[in-house]
Design a protein that fits this description.
This is Short-chain dehydrogenase. This protein has 282 residues and is an alpha/beta fold. It has 8 helices and 8 strands. The longest helix has 23 residues.
């Protein structure tokens, strides 16, 4: 990984920070893309202190804002001439329905549409840097997800399902992206990190949600364990050329039957292009 440029979203805490730390140890040059730039800078200083690697930069990125994503991508592409690994790590889970500034349901807006737009805006740089890798953190929660094209924003049926739906969208996107990137030298894979004990569960929005998290905590794994598959996908030479796969515990695994539906993936791709206002013909 020495001197490879790695961009990690949501790298100021949890498995994102742990992934960054381990890749810094391997000699990678890191860009920590985070919504809270102060926390990103604090993470940077901590990683430098722990690894001795000073080739770590921070940049502001809010995946709940298409304006922020476009501004970030423009600045990144100006600042960096290459991108070897993109790790789409940032994500959120909400027990209640909120909206982004663009009017999207927040969970799907950040976890899928924001990730989709960011990846698309960095594709040219990734292609120029080939062989390069795109890694998206999904979840086994995708097994409970559906893609209702009549209600992608969960206006009719939220009930906490938006997270599972967004994680299914991550996998459908990854598989379709891998198909579209054949012969470019850019690979796209996704993963389930495990149920990780991290800040993800620190702010329940209701007593019921807190009780549910408290029941889950004894079965949660450490942040260090949760980051292992992301680190493996980013750095292992064994995976050179491997694309369009889903991984769990550093091994290729099967995702849900719906995640392999090519027509659903194609429709989600076209829908996503419209939602984020991308015209690939121009």
């Amino acid at each position: 990984m020495k001197d490879k440029i790695v961009l990690i979203t949501g790298a100021n805490s949890g498995i994102g920070k742990e992934t960054a730390t381990k890749l810094a140890t391997k000699g990678a040059s890191l860009v920590l893309a985070c919504r809270d730039i102060q926390k990103a800078n604090e993470a940077r200083e901590e990683i430098i202190a722990n690894t001795g690697n000073t080739r770590i930069e921070t940049m502001s990125l809010d995946l709940a804002s298409f304006t922020s994503i476009r501004t970030f991508a423009t600045e990144f592409n100006k600042r960096y001439e290459s991108l070897d690994v993109l790790i789409n790590n940032a994500g959120l889970m909400k027990g209640s329905r909120f909206e982004t500034e663009d009017g999207l349901e927040l969970t799907m807006g950040v976890n899928h549409f924001g990730t989709f737009l960011l990846t698309m805006l960095l594709l040219d740089r990734l292609k120029e840097s080939a062989p390069s890798r795109i890694i998206t953190v999904s979840s086994n929660a995708h097994e409970y997800g559906t893609i209702d094209f009549d209600d992608l924003q969960s206006t009719k049926n939220f009930e906490g399902r938006a997270y599972a739906n967004s994680k299914l969208a991550n996998i459908l996107f990854t598989y379709e992206l891998a198909r579209k990137l054949q012969s470019t030298g850019v690979t796209a894979n996704c993963l389930h990190p495990g149920m990780v004990q991290s800040s993800f569960y620190d702010h329940p929005e209701s007593i019921e949600e807190k009780e549910r998290y408290d029941l889950l905590r004894p079965n949660m794994i450490s942040v260090e364990e949760g980051a292992l598959t992301s680190i493996y996908l980013a750095s292992s030479p064994v995976l050179e050329g491997v694309t369009g796969k889903y991984f769990d515990k550093c091994k290729e695994a099967s995702s849900s039957a719906l995640s392999y539906d090519i027509q659903t993936a194609k429709r989600l791709w076209e829908t996503s292009l419209r939602v984020v206002s991308l015209d690939l013909t121009s």
